[in-house]
Amino acid sequence: xxxxxxxNLWSKDVSTGAxxxxxxxxxxxxxxxxxxxxxxxxxxxxxxxxxFPGHSILLALGRVIERIRQLDxxxxxxxxxxxGLEIILRxxxxxxxxxxxxxxxxxxxxxxxxxxxSWRKLELQSWS
Length: 128
Fold this sequence. Notes:
The protein is built from five helices and no strands. Helix 2 (about 35-50) runs antiparallel to helix 3 (about 55-70) and helix 2 runs antiparallel to helix 5. It has helices at about 30, 35-50, 55-70, 80-100, 105-125. It is elongated. The two termini are about 30 Å apart. By secondary structure, it is mainly alpha-helical.
């Protein structure tokens, strides 16, 4: 995920607790948690594309990952980023259900799934 160079990511005291409006409020500290799993997942997708050139699911996964990573963490609502991660999980599920054990997406996908679960809890907290 990118952060505008003219802004300091850590300059504002943004709570990682419940957001008052989860789907429209940016939470940069939370959003940055998606960067490493998305990088690792993109690397794995690239490896698999070398083995399966032009595979539509892998190409779609790569496009969605890149699109999410281009979002500005200072401005993008956490709900928008989470929606993108959920799209990744749905597309990855299509791949995983037909893939043999040696071509699964593995740990990076598990990390994305865990992050979505964590953000769902944060979303529920914002309702109270």
